[in-house]
Here is the input.
Amino acid sequence: MDLEQQLAKMREDWDARARENAKHYVQTAQTDWTDEEFYASGEQTVKEEIRTDMINICQGKDPKEMRVLEIGCGAGRVTRALANLFGEVYAVDVSGEMIAQAKKGLENHPNAHVFQNNGKDLSVLPELGYDFAFSTIVFQHIPSKEVIETYVREVSRLLKPGALFKFQVQGFTGMQATPDDTWLGVSYSDEQAKELGERCGFEPRHRHGAGEQYFWLWFFKR
Ligand SMILES: C[S@@+](CC[C@H](N)C(=O)[O-])C[C@H]1O[C@@H](n2cnc3c(N)ncnc32)[C@H](O)[C@@H]1O
Here is the structure.
């Protein structure tokens, strides 16, 4: 399976999941989410991963003056909470079906801009200079290190110097991803994650959760 076939498979599989039950596949904790519960869970993610970490994320800036970037926004669960906190949010997702649902959920958030992308880079986004980038429960589903590394380089291209890319990868190395399975992504050891950051123009300053599903990385743009 070559890269183009793999990207098409990601788009098709995530479109199908979005048509079947987008909110469930985005956050599998529940099967039947009400809108209220679904967006509250996004606020909870932002509370746990962002509001507790404002020193690294904002570095003294007023959040309302910050432009942030999100990879794999799905139906806009976290995107809406990001838009409530930050000045402008730019988000991408490989699935047009997910993006359609995100647009609906973000109708009252004119500072959130969502785009369907090609599943591997950020060429669809304006080159504005971003103050922070975030991604959660996305790379754990991507079965290709080439794709993940392309995203990390792309974030490095778009972030302002010193800014943080905080994101989660699969850290449990006991299961092997296969190229055509778009649910189980590739995993990273601590050393591999560190090398990834260094290769792509970041200082991989903090890492938390090596060996676990929720392996969080704090990459600061050099
Ligand atoms: C489990 S959902 C999480 C969505 C969102 N991050 C959240 O926490 O609510 C995973 C999302 O990643 C997207 N995705 C999967 N592979 C992708 C890729 N290669 N590029 C961009 N988005 C991708 C899927 O379409 C899906 O919307």
About this structure: The chain has a mean pLDDT of 97. Residues 3-26 form the longest helix (24 residues).
